[in-house]
Amino acid sequence: MRTDTIAAVATAAGSAGIGIIRISGENAIAVADCVYRSKNNQKKLADAVSHTIHYGFIYYQGELIDEVMVAVMKAPHTYTCEDIVEIDCHGGILVINKILEAVLQSGCRLAEAGEFTKRAFLNGRIDLSRAEAVMDIISSKNEFALKSSAHQLTGSLSQKVRSLREMLLYEIAFIESALDDPEHISLEGYPVKLEQKVLHVRADIQKLIDSADNGKILKEGINTVIVGKPNAGKSSLMNLLAGEEKAIVTSIAGTTRDILEEQIRLHGIGLNMIDTAGIRDTNDEVEKLGVEKAKKYAENADLILYMVDASCPLDENDDAIIKLISGKKVIVLLNKNDLATVVSERDIKEKFMETEKMTDMSENFDYTIIKTSTKENTGIDKFEQVIKDKFFHGEIAVNKEIYITNQRHKEALQEAFQSLELVLASIENQMPEDFYSIDLMDAYSALGRIIGEEVGDDLVNEIFGKFCMGK
Questions:
Q1: CB-hemisphere CA count at 13 Å for 14?
Q2: Most buried in the list 34, 79, 409, 441, measured by CB within 10 Å?
Q3: CA atoms within 13 A on the CB side of 371
Q4: Taking 90 as the threshold, does the pLDDT of residue 102 lie above it?
Q5: Would you state the pLDDT for residue 251?
Q6: Dihedral (C-alpha) 373, 375, 377, 379: value to the nearest 10 degrees?
Q7: Is the dihedral of CA 39, 40, 43, 48 positive or negative?
Q8: CA-to-CA distance for 234 and 284, rounded, in angstroms?
Q9: To 10 degrees, the CA torsion angle through 184, 187, 193, 199?
Q10: Roughly what angle, to the nearest 10 degrees, separates helices 285-299 and 316-324?
């Protein structure tokens, strides 16, 4: 581990009210003293009490750069468990860079991406899952993602993983002790007891794995694609949900030729919304390219919003669309109910049933029909509730539940689950007890990777390399 002193700008790039330059390491205070002058040039930061703030100025090569406030925090009670100095200056790009340059010239180097948090991990202040929660908080796109990440930062996942590992470690130690000292420790009847404990741990791991789909949606949002025939109201829906005119809306069919993307929040749920070209047979080469893009995006969507113009009869284009969205979570928006309608909910259901028979689907469509009018803004409240029901089965309680939002964590849990399956198979097949120990240890190690107790330097570097500078 590198223990030299590092520095970086800890605030976002661009002009702002204030900027922060963070310094961490054994010589952090000495480096700051090289550029800092108190108001009367009498006080040194080296003499300061820990966790205090000081008013003064930054000088470099005898030139005054800025008026600042400087926070001094001494090890070990800091974010990195090292001495830390934070210089709060005015937020102009030039002044921030000049202060950073002065600090770097005074005896430290530029921090790598995520290096402050990496040091917090390596110095034992936080485990790896909590370190990753820091970055998740920074990149949160919606209210639920923020709550989930903050909950994980408090150690909710870490505590659960450690609890599961302790159960496994107890059984591993018992088996090893019994094998080493069979005269005093008997394994008679033990497989039955072990089976119950493994089933309990496996159930807890399965619950965490099952939360990963919701966790992914909480973190990244629901990839939502609006499809339908031209002039069905797709762009009007996009504008309504976005709260502004994002898409051009005209009475001319085929106005939308390309893909329009927008991040939308509905009561804290993130929708990665994509408005597509109307799907129909066309000889227009440009429109045809838009239709092909629409089909491609629909194939990869988490949720399909199928807009139907209820004032126009269904036709072969609707047949093609319904076939395209088979196997997806679908909300059918029976739109333009402010006009005289010729398409009913029953008509839509019959179309879906016909497609199921024609395609010989093994599973029924997962669809819900809602009557809407984007012109009069009706049906949207029900639409929002249906999204919650489809993806979260009711209310989301991220303050109580642990959601797996990290693919690395999910893979480690799946590996641990598979190892426990092998333990159960060995018990069923009455294999020798040392077989149990091997697979229990594999599960223990897999869970350890989540909190960073079973990881190598390469993985640590890869994880923290994804962090932003200054964090």
A1: 2
A2: 409
A3: 13
A4: yes
A5: 44
A6: 10
A7: negative
A8: 20
A9: 120
A10: 40
Planar angle of CA 370, 371, 376, nearest 5 degrees: 130
Closest CA to 278 of 246, 243, 306: 306
What gap in Å lies between CA 471 and CA 468, rounded to an integer? 6
With residue 113 as reference, give the H or E element that holds it. Answer: none
pLDDT tens readout for residues 275-297? 776 665 555 555 566 667 767 77
Tell me how far apart the alpha carbons of residues 36 and 38 are, in angstroms, rounded to a whole number: 7
Q: Give how far Cα 162 sits from Cα of 124, 321, 349, Å.
A: 15, 49, 49
Residues 265 and 269: their CA atoms lie apart, in Å, by 5
pTM: 0.71
Encoding tokens for residue 335?
């739109």
List b or e across 356-371, with b for residues whose CB sees 16 or more CB atoms inside 10 angstroms. Answer: beeeeeeeebebbbbb
Residue 334 near residue 307, CB atoms below 8 Å: no
User: Partners of 36 in the beta sheet?
Assistant: 58
**What is the chain's mean pLDDT, rounded?**
83
Residue 119 CB: number of other CB atoms within 10 A? 23
The pLDDT value recorded for residue 16 is: 82
Q: How far apart are CA 23 and CA 119, in angstroms?
A: 12
State which amino acid sits at residue 445: S
Confidence of residue 187 (pLDDT cuts 50, 70, 90): confident
Looking at the chain, the number of H-run helices and the number of E-run strands are 15, 13
Preceding peptide of 432 cis, ω within 30° = no
- The identity of residue 199, as a single letter, is L
Whether the CB-CB separation of 339 and 271 falls below 8 Å is answered with no
Q: Is the pLDDT of residue 424 over 90?
A: yes
3-state secondary structure of 337: coil
Q: Inform me whether the pLDDT recorded for 105 exceeds 50.
A: yes
Q: Which residue has the tokens 């300061």?
A: 48
Lowest mean pLDDT of 215-224, 335-344, 355-364, name the range.
355-364
pLDDT tens figures, 68-77: 999 999 999 9
Contact 272, 261 (CB under 8 A): yes
Residue 115 has pLDDT above 50, yes or no: yes
More reliable by pLDDT, 150 or 220? 150
Query: Judging by beta carbons within 10 Å of its beta carbon (0-12, 13-18, 19+), is residue 406 exposed, middle or buried?
Result: buried
**CB atoms near residue 283 (< 10 Å):** 6
